[in-house]
Design goal:
The structure is a single chain. Helix content is about 35%, strand content about 25%. It has about 240 residues and is an alpha/beta fold. The longest helix is centred in the last third of the chain and has 17 residues, at about 165-180. Adenosine-5'-triphosphate binds near residues 11, 14, 38, 40 and 83.
Length: about 240
């Protein structure tokens, strides 16, 4: 479904991605783990075209999307829930979800809204609340819900568990599993919480300073000595 090949991304003179290759197949949950600053968020942003890759290609469903503007990439079926959630704090829950549906097929709004409320009943209870006044966990639910409103076939999640209490982390991961199983949604997820993320994922990749250094099934990576020492210490 998604093929990233030989991707290099720069911020000015800084080379954040140094030739990244990876694949995500339809129906999978794939997790990318790596230390702070490895380039994980940059990869998700490059898939969405901002910043675009300077070299290499991003192919989605057989089509080269490397140089497309972000709105075109969203229209083709990719949505991202960004790091730090980036919900619109002054808007209500409903308004945030409406923003997410801008590039969806016309007439689909109510169906998608019901689907999101089914996954996150809390959002339905808080429909008129200003998003900025919600808890961290609720804001994360809203960010994922907003991404789902565009009816993506590939959902990109940047650190969905960041800063959340353990119980809420479990809820969020459970919902990711449900979306994947029930809606057959393909998920590519960046996570610091390597243990939970690899348990959930079908496959995983490890990134070190802008390069993929390891890949395998979630179970293989969880059992790998290097991964355990670097990312699961004490876990
Ligand atoms: P974290 O887990 O801490 O979010 P990450 O693996 O997602 O880290 P990135 O945020 O992709 O890493 O950053 C990769 C590198 O690119 C880092 O060295 C970072 O300082 C640099 N970088 C990221 N964004 C910018 C920017 N807008 N301008 C300049 N450099 C940047």
């Amino acid at each position: 479904m998604l093929t990233v090949s030989g991707v290099h991304t720069f911020y000015g003179a800084i080379e954040a991605l140094k030739g990244v290759d990876l694949e995500v197949s339809a129906g999978e949950i794939v997790t990318l783990i790596g230390a702070n600053g490895a380039g994980k968020s940059t990869l998700l942003m490059t898939i969405c075209g901002n910043p675009p890759a300077r070299a290499g290609r991003v192919i989605f469903e057989g089509e080269d999307i490397t140089r497309l503007p972000t709105f075109e990439i969203v229209r083709r079926g990719i949505a991202q829930s960004p790091e730090g959630r980036r919900i619109f704090p002054r808007m209500t829950v409903l308004e945030n979800l409406q923003m997410g549906s801008i590039s969806a097929k016309p007439g689909s709004f109510n169906t998608e809204l019901e689907r999101v409320f089914h996954l996150f009943p809390r959002l339905k209870e808080r429909i008129d609340q200003r998003a900025g006044t919600m808890s961290g966990g609720e804001q994360q639910m809203l960010a994922i819900g907003r991404a789902l409103m565009s009816q993506p076939r590939l959902l990109l999640l940047d650190e969905p568990s960041l800063g959340l209490a353990p119980l809420v982390v479990r809820q969020i991961f459970q919902v990711i599993k449900d979306i994947n199983r029930e809606q057959k949604m393909t998920v590519f997820m960046v996570e610091q919480n390597a243990f939970h993320a690899l348990k959930l994922a079908h496959r995983g990749y490890v990134m070190v300073t802008g390069k993929i250094t390891m890949s395998g099934t979630g179970a293989e990576l969880l059992a790998n000595e290097e991964v355990r020492a670097a990312y699961l210490e004490g876990g």
